[in-house]
Protein backbone atom coordinates (compact mmCIF):
# COMPACT_ATOMS: atom_id res chain seq x y z
CA UNK A 1 0.00 0.00 0.00
CA UNK A 2 1.18 3.49 -0.85
CA UNK A 3 0.87 7.17 -0.16
CA UNK A 4 0.77 9.42 -3.21
CA UNK A 5 2.32 12.86 -3.04
CA UNK A 6 -0.32 15.18 -4.51
CA UNK A 7 1.81 18.19 -3.61
CA UNK A 8 5.40 17.87 -2.42
CA UNK A 9 5.61 21.34 -0.89
CA UNK A 10 8.76 23.40 -0.63
CA UNK A 11 11.27 20.79 0.58
CA UNK A 12 10.01 17.45 1.88
CA UNK A 13 12.20 14.40 2.44
CA UNK A 14 11.96 10.91 3.90
CA UNK A 15 13.82 10.80 7.23
CA UNK A 16 14.25 8.47 10.19
CA UNK A 17 16.41 9.01 13.28
CA UNK A 18 19.58 9.13 11.17
CA UNK A 19 22.44 7.09 9.83
CA UNK A 20 25.07 6.00 12.31
CA UNK A 21 28.20 3.90 11.94
CA UNK A 22 29.66 5.51 8.83
CA UNK A 23 31.11 8.73 10.18
CA UNK A 24 34.62 7.31 9.61
CA UNK A 25 33.71 7.11 5.90
CA UNK A 26 32.62 10.75 5.93
CA UNK A 27 28.87 10.02 6.05
CA UNK A 28 26.96 12.45 8.25
CA UNK A 29 24.26 11.30 10.66
CA UNK A 30 21.51 13.23 8.88
CA UNK A 31 17.99 12.05 9.70
CA UNK A 32 15.13 14.18 10.99
CA UNK A 33 16.65 17.52 12.06
CA UNK A 34 14.49 17.17 15.17
CA UNK A 35 14.94 13.47 15.89
CA UNK A 36 12.92 13.80 19.10
CA UNK A 37 9.86 15.15 17.20
CA UNK A 38 10.15 12.27 14.74
CA UNK A 39 10.22 9.62 17.45
CA UNK A 40 7.34 11.24 19.38
CA UNK A 41 5.25 11.23 16.18
CA UNK A 42 6.24 7.61 15.58
CA UNK A 43 5.25 6.65 19.12
CA UNK A 44 1.84 8.31 18.64
CA UNK A 45 1.04 6.14 15.60
CA UNK A 46 2.40 2.93 17.16
CA UNK A 47 5.64 2.74 15.15
CA UNK A 48 9.13 1.94 16.35
CA UNK A 49 11.06 5.10 17.25
CA UNK A 50 13.21 4.79 14.14
CA UNK A 51 10.47 4.28 11.52
CA UNK A 52 10.80 6.56 8.50
CA UNK A 53 8.45 9.52 8.20
CA UNK A 54 8.45 12.82 6.36
CA UNK A 55 10.21 16.05 7.19
CA UNK A 56 8.20 18.89 5.65
CA UNK A 57 9.65 22.38 5.24
CA UNK A 58 7.18 25.28 5.23
CA UNK A 59 4.33 22.82 4.60
CA UNK A 60 2.20 22.93 1.44
CA UNK A 61 2.33 19.16 1.55
CA UNK A 62 -0.64 17.06 0.38
CA UNK A 63 -0.73 13.27 0.59
CA UNK A 64 -3.35 10.69 -0.42
CA UNK A 65 -3.46 7.23 1.06
CA UNK A 66 -4.42 3.89 -0.53
CA UNK A 67 -5.61 2.44 2.76
CA UNK A 68 -6.48 3.48 6.31
CA UNK A 69 -3.54 4.76 8.34
CA UNK A 70 -2.93 6.46 11.65
CA UNK A 71 -0.93 9.66 11.29
CA UNK A 72 0.61 12.15 13.73
CA UNK A 73 2.87 15.15 13.47
CA UNK A 74 5.08 17.40 15.64
CA UNK A 75 7.17 20.49 14.90
CA UNK A 76 6.37 24.06 13.89
CA UNK A 77 2.74 25.18 14.37
CA UNK A 78 1.38 24.01 11.03
CA UNK A 79 -2.29 23.64 10.24
CA UNK A 80 -2.86 20.00 9.36
CA UNK A 81 -6.17 18.64 8.10
CA UNK A 82 -7.42 15.13 7.41
CA UNK A 83 -10.23 15.77 4.98
CA UNK A 84 -12.25 18.44 6.84
CA UNK A 85 -10.98 17.50 10.29
CA UNK A 86 -8.22 19.46 12.02
CA UNK A 87 -5.38 17.26 13.30
CA UNK A 88 -3.73 19.10 16.21
CA UNK A 89 0.02 18.64 16.82
CA UNK A 90 0.97 15.68 19.00
CA UNK A 91 -2.33 13.86 18.46
CA UNK A 92 -2.95 10.67 16.49
CA UNK A 93 -5.61 10.73 13.78
CA UNK A 94 -7.13 8.18 11.45
CA UNK A 95 -7.07 8.87 7.74
CA UNK A 96 -9.27 6.79 5.47
CA UNK A 97 -8.48 5.25 2.09
CA UNK A 98 -8.59 7.93 -0.60
CA UNK A 99 -8.63 10.78 1.92
CA UNK A 100 -6.20 13.66 1.66
CA UNK A 101 -3.87 14.94 4.36
CA UNK A 102 -2.90 18.60 4.01
CA UNK A 103 -0.05 20.32 5.87
CA UNK A 104 -0.40 24.08 5.32
CA UNK A 105 2.38 26.62 5.85
CA UNK A 106 3.35 27.13 9.54
CA UNK A 107 2.70 30.35 11.46
CA UNK A 108 6.07 30.12 13.22
CA UNK A 109 9.10 27.95 12.67
CA UNK A 110 9.76 26.06 9.50
CA UNK A 111 9.73 22.28 9.79
CA UNK A 112 7.33 19.55 10.77
CA UNK A 113 7.63 15.77 11.08
CA UNK A 114 4.85 13.45 9.99
CA UNK A 115 4.66 9.81 11.07
CA UNK A 116 2.44 7.28 9.29
CA UNK A 117 1.55 3.94 10.90
CA UNK A 118 3.65 1.22 9.26
CA UNK A 119 6.31 3.80 8.35
CA UNK A 120 7.56 4.70 4.87
CA UNK A 121 9.03 1.50 3.52
CA UNK A 122 11.82 2.76 1.27
CA UNK A 123 14.89 0.48 1.13
CA UNK A 124 17.54 0.69 3.83
CA UNK A 125 20.70 2.32 2.49
CA UNK A 126 23.66 2.06 4.84
CA UNK A 127 21.26 0.85 7.55
CA UNK A 128 18.97 3.89 7.38
CA UNK A 129 15.97 5.12 5.38
CA UNK A 130 17.03 8.77 5.76
CA UNK A 131 17.60 10.85 2.65
CA UNK A 132 21.19 12.08 2.41
CA UNK A 133 20.61 15.18 0.30
CA UNK A 134 24.33 15.93 -0.08
CA UNK A 135 25.29 12.39 -1.09
CA UNK A 136 22.03 11.83 -2.99
CA UNK A 137 21.29 8.43 -1.51
CA UNK A 138 18.74 6.91 0.84
CA UNK A 139 15.12 7.96 1.27
CA UNK A 140 13.11 8.23 -1.94
CA UNK A 141 15.71 7.95 -4.75
CA UNK A 142 18.15 10.03 -2.70
CA UNK A 143 16.24 13.26 -3.29
CA UNK A 144 13.49 15.53 -1.98
CA UNK A 145 9.93 14.60 -2.92
CA UNK A 146 8.24 15.79 -6.09
CA UNK A 147 4.58 16.04 -7.03
CA UNK A 148 3.29 12.65 -8.10
CA UNK A 149 5.82 10.54 -6.15
CA UNK A 150 4.46 7.30 -4.75
CA UNK A 151 5.77 6.27 -1.33
CA UNK A 152 5.55 2.61 -0.28
CA UNK A 153 4.14 2.17 3.24
CA UNK A 154 5.00 -0.66 5.64
CA UNK A 155 2.59 -3.10 7.22
CA UNK A 156 0.74 -2.09 10.35
CA UNK A 157 -1.66 -3.70 12.78
CA UNK A 158 -5.43 -3.97 12.22
CA UNK A 159 -7.32 -0.76 12.91
CA UNK A 160 -10.60 -1.36 14.69
CA UNK A 161 -11.75 2.22 14.55
CA UNK A 162 -13.67 4.20 11.95
CA UNK A 163 -12.90 7.64 10.56
CA UNK A 164 -13.22 10.38 11.63
CA UNK A 165 -11.15 9.74 14.73
CA UNK A 166 -8.68 11.99 16.54
CA UNK A 167 -7.08 10.74 19.74
CA UNK A 168 -8.06 12.37 23.02
CA UNK A 169 -4.61 11.74 24.41
CA UNK A 170 -1.62 13.65 23.11
CA UNK A 171 2.10 14.23 23.48
CA UNK A 172 3.28 16.87 26.00
CA UNK A 173 2.79 20.31 24.44
CA UNK A 174 6.52 21.29 24.40
CA UNK A 175 7.25 18.15 22.35
CA UNK A 176 4.34 18.64 19.97
CA UNK A 177 5.04 22.28 19.03
CA UNK A 178 8.70 23.18 19.08
CA UNK A 179 8.87 26.68 17.63
CA UNK A 180 8.88 29.19 20.50
CA UNK A 181 8.82 32.89 19.73
CA UNK A 182 11.78 33.58 22.02
CA UNK A 183 14.48 31.39 20.68
CA UNK A 184 16.93 30.70 23.48
CA UNK A 185 19.40 27.94 22.78
CA UNK A 186 21.40 26.54 25.68
CA UNK A 187 25.08 25.87 24.94
CA UNK A 188 28.08 24.21 26.51
CA UNK A 189 31.59 25.50 25.83
CA UNK A 190 33.46 24.09 22.84
CA UNK A 191 37.06 22.91 22.65
CA UNK A 192 38.24 26.26 21.27
CA UNK A 193 36.34 28.55 23.68
CA UNK A 194 39.67 29.92 24.97
CA UNK A 195 40.80 30.96 21.47
CA UNK A 196 38.16 33.69 21.51
CA UNK A 197 38.51 37.14 23.04
CA UNK A 198 36.62 37.88 26.29
CA UNK A 199 34.46 40.29 24.24
CA UNK A 200 33.55 37.47 21.85
CA UNK A 201 32.72 35.14 24.74
CA UNK A 202 30.44 37.77 26.27
CA UNK A 203 28.85 38.63 22.90
CA UNK A 204 27.96 35.01 22.32
CA UNK A 205 25.80 34.80 25.44
CA UNK A 206 24.38 38.34 25.42
CA UNK A 207 23.83 39.36 21.80
CA UNK A 208 21.03 38.47 19.43
CA UNK A 209 21.98 36.66 16.22
CA UNK A 210 19.97 36.62 12.99
CA UNK A 211 19.69 33.56 10.76
CA UNK A 212 20.89 34.42 7.23
CA UNK A 213 19.38 33.18 3.93
CA UNK A 214 22.23 30.80 3.06
CA UNK A 215 21.09 28.35 5.74
CA UNK A 216 19.96 24.79 5.09
CA UNK A 217 19.90 21.29 6.63
CA UNK A 218 23.71 21.44 6.96
CA UNK A 219 23.72 24.50 9.12
CA UNK A 220 22.20 27.83 10.09
CA UNK A 221 24.50 30.75 9.32
CA UNK A 222 24.19 33.52 11.87
CA UNK A 223 24.71 37.26 11.61
CA UNK A 224 25.65 39.19 14.74
CA UNK A 225 28.61 40.80 16.47
CA UNK A 226 31.93 39.44 15.19
CA UNK A 227 33.29 36.64 17.37
CA UNK A 228 36.99 37.39 17.11
CA UNK A 229 39.72 34.96 17.98
CA UNK A 230 42.77 35.98 20.01
CA UNK A 231 44.99 33.28 18.57
CA UNK A 232 46.18 32.98 15.01
CA UNK A 233 47.15 29.72 13.40
CA UNK A 234 45.23 26.99 11.69
CA UNK A 235 43.60 24.14 13.54
CA UNK A 236 43.76 20.56 12.38
CA UNK A 237 40.38 19.37 11.22
CA UNK A 238 38.50 17.30 13.78
CA UNK A 239 35.03 15.95 14.36
CA UNK A 240 32.02 18.26 14.47
CA UNK A 241 28.47 17.30 15.43
CA UNK A 242 24.94 18.60 14.97
CA UNK A 243 24.74 21.51 17.43
CA UNK A 244 28.38 22.60 17.01
CA UNK A 245 28.81 26.38 16.76
CA UNK A 246 31.86 26.92 14.59
CA UNK A 247 33.35 30.28 13.71
CA UNK A 248 35.02 30.81 10.31
CA UNK A 249 37.52 33.68 9.85
CA UNK A 250 34.63 36.10 9.10
CA UNK A 251 33.71 35.92 12.82
CA UNK A 252 30.09 35.06 11.98
CA UNK A 253 29.18 31.71 13.55
CA UNK A 254 27.58 28.73 11.83
CA UNK A 255 25.29 26.46 13.85
CA UNK A 256 25.69 22.97 12.39
CA UNK A 257 22.58 20.84 11.89
CA UNK A 258 21.93 17.18 11.04
CA UNK A 259 23.37 17.13 7.50
CA UNK A 260 26.63 18.80 8.58
CA UNK A 261 29.90 17.35 7.37
CA UNK A 262 31.73 14.96 9.70
CA UNK A 263 34.90 17.00 10.25
CA UNK A 264 35.71 20.68 10.22
CA UNK A 265 38.69 22.94 10.71
CA UNK A 266 37.06 26.10 12.06
CA UNK A 267 37.33 26.91 15.78
CA UNK A 268 34.45 25.47 17.80
CA UNK A 269 33.30 28.04 20.33
CA UNK A 270 30.33 26.09 21.75
CA UNK A 271 27.74 23.38 21.17
CA UNK A 272 23.95 23.66 21.44
CA UNK A 273 22.76 21.00 23.87
CA UNK A 274 20.83 18.03 22.51
CA UNK A 275 17.50 18.86 24.16
CA UNK A 276 17.52 22.28 22.44
CA UNK A 277 18.22 20.94 18.93
CA UNK A 278 14.42 20.88 18.29
CA UNK A 279 14.42 24.69 18.55
CA UNK A 280 17.52 24.90 16.32
CA UNK A 281 15.73 22.72 13.76
CA UNK A 282 13.00 25.39 13.40
CA UNK A 283 15.35 28.28 12.60
CA UNK A 284 14.61 30.08 9.36
CA UNK A 285 16.26 33.08 7.65
CA UNK A 286 15.35 36.27 9.51
CA UNK A 287 14.76 34.53 12.85
CA UNK A 288 16.57 35.90 15.91
CA UNK A 289 18.29 33.60 18.35
CA UNK A 290 20.13 34.01 21.65
CA UNK A 291 22.44 31.67 23.53
CA UNK A 292 22.62 30.83 27.20
CA UNK A 293 25.50 28.89 28.75
CA UNK A 294 24.95 25.80 30.90
CA UNK A 295 27.39 23.24 32.28
CA UNK A 296 27.93 19.86 30.69
CA UNK A 297 26.48 18.24 33.83
CA UNK A 298 23.27 20.27 33.41
CA UNK A 299 23.09 19.44 29.69
CA UNK A 300 23.44 15.73 30.34
CA UNK A 301 20.98 15.84 33.23
CA UNK A 302 18.41 17.45 30.91
CA UNK A 303 19.16 14.77 28.31
CA UNK A 304 18.59 11.96 30.85
CA UNK A 305 15.39 13.55 32.14
CA UNK A 306 13.99 13.76 28.62
CA UNK A 307 14.86 10.10 28.01
CA UNK A 308 13.01 9.13 31.19
CA UNK A 309 10.04 11.28 30.22
CA UNK A 310 9.94 9.71 26.76
CA UNK A 311 10.07 6.18 28.21
CA UNK A 312 7.11 7.04 30.49
CA UNK A 313 5.26 8.60 27.54
CA UNK A 314 5.68 5.34 25.59
CA UNK A 315 4.34 3.29 28.51
CA UNK A 316 1.37 5.66 28.78
CA UNK A 317 0.56 5.26 25.09
CA UNK A 318 0.63 1.47 25.41
CA UNK A 319 -1.92 1.73 28.25
CA UNK A 320 -4.22 3.84 26.03
CA UNK A 321 -4.03 1.29 23.26
CA UNK A 322 -4.54 -1.81 25.38
CA UNK B 1 46.45 12.45 25.86
CA UNK B 2 43.39 14.47 26.86
CA UNK B 3 39.68 13.75 26.74
CA UNK B 4 37.35 16.73 26.19
CA UNK B 5 33.61 16.99 25.65
CA UNK B 6 32.28 17.63 22.13
CA UNK B 7 28.82 18.80 23.17
CA UNK B 8 26.73 16.57 25.45
CA UNK B 9 26.68 13.43 23.29
CA UNK B 10 30.23 13.13 21.99
CA UNK B 11 33.79 13.57 23.20
CA UNK B 12 37.21 14.03 21.66
CA UNK B 13 40.26 11.97 22.57
CA UNK B 14 43.30 14.13 21.78
CA UNK B 15 45.91 11.50 21.11
CA UNK B 16 48.89 13.67 20.20
CA UNK B 17 49.59 17.35 20.62
CA UNK B 18 52.58 17.74 18.36
CA UNK B 19 51.19 16.54 15.06
CA UNK B 20 53.49 18.67 12.93
CA UNK B 21 56.62 16.93 14.17
CA UNK B 22 55.69 13.52 12.92
CA UNK B 23 52.46 13.07 11.01
CA UNK B 24 53.11 9.41 10.32
CA UNK B 25 53.81 8.55 13.96
CA UNK B 26 50.84 10.69 15.03
CA UNK B 27 48.52 8.90 12.64
CA UNK B 28 49.75 5.52 13.91
CA UNK B 29 49.03 6.60 17.48
CA UNK B 30 45.53 7.80 16.48
CA UNK B 31 44.84 4.50 14.70
CA UNK B 32 45.96 2.51 17.76
CA UNK B 33 43.48 4.44 19.93
CA UNK B 34 40.77 4.04 17.28
CA UNK B 35 41.25 0.26 17.07
CA UNK B 36 41.51 -0.14 20.85
CA UNK B 37 38.22 1.71 21.34
CA UNK B 38 36.59 -0.28 18.56
CA UNK B 39 37.73 -3.51 20.25
CA UNK B 40 36.60 -2.28 23.68
CA UNK B 41 33.00 -1.96 22.36
CA UNK B 42 31.96 0.19 25.34
CA UNK B 43 28.16 -0.02 25.79
CA UNK B 44 26.49 3.27 24.83
CA UNK B 45 29.17 4.22 22.30
CA UNK B 46 27.52 4.78 18.91
CA UNK B 47 30.44 5.43 16.60
CA UNK B 48 34.04 6.61 16.35
CA UNK B 49 35.62 9.13 14.00
CA UNK B 50 39.41 9.45 13.69
CA UNK B 51 40.86 12.64 12.18
CA UNK B 52 44.51 13.75 12.16
CA UNK B 53 45.41 13.92 15.87
CA UNK B 54 42.06 13.01 17.46
CA UNK B 55 39.48 10.27 17.75
CA UNK B 56 35.90 11.44 18.32
CA UNK B 57 33.57 9.17 20.30
CA UNK B 58 29.81 9.64 19.74
CA UNK B 59 27.65 8.20 22.49
CA UNK B 60 24.16 8.00 23.95
CA UNK B 61 24.39 9.50 27.47
CA UNK B 62 21.37 7.45 28.56
CA UNK B 63 23.11 4.18 27.70
CA UNK B 64 26.40 4.86 29.48
CA UNK B 65 26.30 2.88 32.72
CA UNK B 66 26.64 5.16 35.72
CA UNK B 67 27.11 4.74 39.45
CA UNK B 68 25.70 6.72 42.35
CA UNK B 69 29.15 8.05 43.09
CA UNK B 70 29.62 9.23 39.53
CA UNK B 71 26.32 10.21 37.91
CA UNK B 72 27.87 12.02 34.92
CA UNK B 73 27.79 10.05 31.64
CA UNK B 74 30.81 12.03 30.40
CA UNK B 75 32.89 11.21 33.50
CA UNK B 76 31.92 7.54 33.41
CA UNK B 77 32.69 7.16 29.72
CA UNK B 78 35.99 9.02 30.15
CA UNK B 79 37.00 6.55 32.86
CA UNK B 80 36.06 3.59 30.65
CA UNK B 81 38.03 5.00 27.71
CA UNK B 82 41.07 5.63 29.90
CA UNK B 83 40.82 2.05 31.15
CA UNK B 84 40.56 0.65 27.63
CA UNK B 85 43.58 2.67 26.49
CA UNK B 86 45.68 1.64 29.49
CA UNK B 87 45.11 -1.98 28.56
CA UNK B 88 46.20 -1.08 25.06
CA UNK B 89 49.50 0.41 26.17
CA UNK B 90 50.24 -2.70 28.20
CA UNK B 91 49.29 -4.96 25.30
CA UNK B 92 50.34 -5.14 21.70
CA UNK B 93 51.87 -1.85 20.61
CA UNK B 94 51.60 -1.85 16.87
CA UNK B 95 47.87 -1.65 16.29
CA UNK B 96 46.30 -2.55 12.98
CA UNK B 97 48.49 -2.88 9.95
CA UNK B 98 47.90 -0.30 7.24
CA UNK B 99 46.52 -1.43 3.94
CA UNK B 100 48.34 -0.58 0.71
CA UNK B 101 46.24 0.54 -2.27
CA UNK B 102 47.27 1.47 -5.80
CA UNK B 103 45.01 3.99 -7.51
CA UNK B 104 45.15 4.47 -11.31
CA UNK B 105 45.11 8.15 -12.30
CA UNK B 106 44.84 9.65 -15.77
CA UNK B 107 46.50 13.08 -16.05
CA UNK B 108 45.13 13.71 -19.57
CA UNK B 109 44.54 17.46 -20.28
CA UNK B 110 40.81 16.68 -20.58
CA UNK B 111 40.73 15.94 -16.83
CA UNK B 112 43.56 18.19 -15.57
CA UNK B 113 41.90 21.62 -15.45
CA UNK B 114 44.56 23.17 -13.21
CA UNK B 115 47.71 21.26 -14.17
CA UNK B 116 49.12 24.35 -15.90
CA UNK B 117 48.51 26.48 -12.82
CA UNK B 118 50.18 23.96 -10.48
CA UNK B 119 53.16 23.77 -12.87
CA UNK B 120 53.59 27.55 -13.02
CA UNK B 121 53.18 27.86 -9.25
CA UNK B 122 55.85 25.21 -8.62
CA UNK B 123 58.20 26.38 -11.40
CA UNK B 124 58.04 22.97 -13.08
CA UNK B 125 56.92 21.62 -16.44
CA UNK B 126 53.53 19.96 -16.57
CA UNK B 127 55.17 16.60 -17.31
CA UNK B 128 57.38 17.02 -14.24
CA UNK B 129 54.35 17.80 -12.02
CA UNK B 130 52.69 14.60 -13.22
CA UNK B 131 55.88 12.55 -12.75
CA UNK B 132 56.35 13.80 -9.18
CA UNK B 133 52.67 13.57 -8.22
CA UNK B 134 52.33 10.01 -9.56
CA UNK B 135 55.66 8.96 -8.06
CA UNK B 136 55.03 10.05 -4.46
CA UNK B 137 53.83 7.83 -1.60
CA UNK B 138 50.75 8.99 0.25
CA UNK B 139 48.80 8.14 3.36
CA UNK B 140 45.13 8.68 4.14
CA UNK B 141 45.00 10.97 7.16
CA UNK B 142 41.25 11.05 7.42
CA UNK B 143 38.10 10.59 5.39
CA UNK B 144 35.56 13.40 5.40
CA UNK B 145 34.46 16.68 3.77
CA UNK B 146 32.14 14.70 1.51
CA UNK B 147 31.35 10.99 1.91
CA UNK B 148 34.47 8.98 1.07
CA UNK B 149 36.81 11.95 0.43
CA UNK B 150 40.39 10.98 1.45
CA UNK B 151 42.78 13.65 2.75
CA UNK B 152 46.22 12.43 1.67
CA UNK B 153 49.53 13.53 3.15
CA UNK B 154 52.82 12.98 1.33
CA UNK B 155 52.46 15.55 -1.43
CA UNK B 156 55.95 16.67 -2.59
CA UNK B 157 56.35 20.20 -1.18
CA UNK B 158 57.10 21.74 -4.60
CA UNK B 159 53.60 20.67 -5.74
CA UNK B 160 51.80 22.43 -2.87
CA UNK B 161 49.43 24.99 -4.42
CA UNK B 162 46.95 27.25 -2.61
CA UNK B 163 43.26 26.59 -3.10
CA UNK B 164 41.56 28.50 -5.89
CA UNK B 165 40.27 31.93 -4.87
CA UNK B 166 36.89 31.06 -6.36
CA UNK B 167 35.82 27.45 -5.88
CA UNK B 168 34.48 25.58 -8.91
CA UNK B 169 30.77 24.94 -8.70
CA UNK B 170 31.22 21.42 -10.00
CA UNK B 171 34.20 19.09 -9.84
CA UNK B 172 33.59 15.71 -11.54
CA UNK B 173 33.65 12.47 -9.54
CA UNK B 174 37.11 10.87 -9.43
CA UNK B 175 38.97 14.18 -9.78
CA UNK B 176 42.44 14.15 -8.23
CA UNK B 177 43.28 17.54 -6.80
CA UNK B 178 45.77 19.57 -4.76
CA UNK B 179 44.65 21.88 -1.95
CA UNK B 180 47.56 23.57 -0.18
CA UNK B 181 49.96 20.87 1.05
CA UNK B 182 47.42 18.08 0.72
CA UNK B 183 46.09 16.06 -2.16
CA UNK B 184 42.74 14.33 -2.37
CA UNK B 185 40.27 12.60 -4.66
CA UNK B 186 36.64 13.72 -5.06
CA UNK B 187 34.49 10.57 -4.72
CA UNK B 188 31.40 12.26 -6.12
CA UNK B 189 30.57 15.32 -8.15
CA UNK B 190 30.75 18.32 -5.84
CA UNK B 191 31.73 21.97 -5.62
CA UNK B 192 35.33 22.48 -4.55
CA UNK B 193 38.28 24.83 -4.45
CA UNK B 194 41.18 22.43 -4.97
CA UNK B 195 43.38 22.42 -8.09
CA UNK B 196 42.32 19.52 -10.33
CA UNK B 197 45.20 17.72 -12.06
CA UNK B 198 43.82 14.30 -13.03
CA UNK B 199 41.06 11.73 -12.61
CA UNK B 200 40.71 8.14 -11.45
CA UNK B 201 38.23 5.80 -13.13
CA UNK B 202 37.61 3.99 -9.82
CA UNK B 203 34.45 4.39 -7.82
CA UNK B 204 35.56 5.58 -4.37
CA UNK B 205 32.20 5.62 -2.59
CA UNK B 206 29.42 3.11 -3.08
CA UNK B 207 26.47 2.83 -0.70
CA UNK B 208 26.04 -0.83 -1.68
CA UNK B 209 29.30 -1.64 0.13
CA UNK B 210 30.06 -1.68 3.86
CA UNK B 211 32.09 0.30 4.55
CA UNK B 212 30.93 2.49 1.65
CA UNK B 213 34.25 4.32 1.27
CA UNK B 214 37.19 2.69 -0.53
CA UNK B 215 39.63 4.49 1.77
CA UNK B 216 40.06 4.46 5.52
CA UNK B 217 42.41 6.46 7.72
CA UNK B 218 45.89 4.92 7.71
CA UNK B 219 45.79 3.45 4.19
CA UNK B 220 49.04 3.79 2.25
CA UNK B 221 48.40 4.96 -1.30
CA UNK B 222 50.47 4.86 -4.46
CA UNK B 223 49.26 6.29 -7.74
CA UNK B 224 49.75 4.72 -11.16
CA UNK B 225 49.65 6.97 -14.19
CA UNK B 226 47.36 5.56 -16.87
CA UNK B 227 46.52 6.53 -20.43
CA UNK B 228 43.20 7.90 -21.64
CA UNK B 229 42.48 4.46 -23.21
CA UNK B 230 43.14 2.63 -19.97
CA UNK B 231 40.95 5.12 -18.13
CA UNK B 232 38.04 4.19 -20.38
CA UNK B 233 38.65 0.46 -19.98
CA UNK B 234 38.82 0.71 -16.17
CA UNK B 235 35.85 3.02 -15.83
CA UNK B 236 33.32 1.69 -13.32
Fold and architecture overview:
The complex is a heterodimer of chains A (322) and B (236). By secondary structure, chain A is of the alpha+beta class. Helices cover 17% and strands 26% of the residues of chain A. Chain A contains five helices and 20 strands. In chain A, strand 6 (80-82) and strand 7 form a beta hairpin. The longest helix of chain A is centred in the last third of the chain and has 26 residues, at 296-321. The two termini of chain A are 26 Å apart. With 236 residues, chain B is of the alpha+beta class. In chain B, the strands form three sheets. In chain B, strands 5-13-6-7-10-9-12 form a seven-stranded mixed beta sheet. In chain B, a hairpin with a 2-residue loop joins strand 9 (175-179) and strand 10. In chain B, helix 1 crosses helix 2. Chain B is elongated and about 65 Å long. The chains are: A alpha+beta (322), B alpha+beta (236). The interface between A and B is large, with 42 and 43 residues.
Task: Give the helix/strand layout.
The complex is a heterodimer of chains A (322) and B (236).
Chain A (H helix, E strand, L loop, with lengths): L1 E6 L3 E5 L19 H11 L7 E5 L3 E5 L3 E7 L4 E3 L2 E2 L5 E4 L4 E4 L7 E6 L33 E3 L20 H4 L7 E6 L8 H9 L2 E3 L7 E5 L14 E2 L4 E3 L7 E3 L6 E2 L3 E5 L4 H4 L7 E6 L2 H26 L1
Parallel strand pairs in A: 12-20
Antiparallel strand pairs in A: 1-4, 1-11, 2-3, 3-10, 4-9, 5-8, 5-10, 6-7, 6-9, 12-19, 13-14, 13-20, 14-17, 15-18, 16-17, 16-19
Chain B lengths: L1 E4 L4 E5 L8 H18 L4 E7 L2 E6 L13 H18 L9 E7 L8 H8 L3 H10 L1 E7 L6 E4 L14 E4 L3 E5 L2 E4 L4 E3 L2 E5 L20 E7 L1 H7 L2
Parallel strand pairs in B: 5-13
Antiparallel strand pairs in B: 1-2, 2-4, 3-4, 6-7, 6-13, 7-10, 8-11, 9-10, 9-12
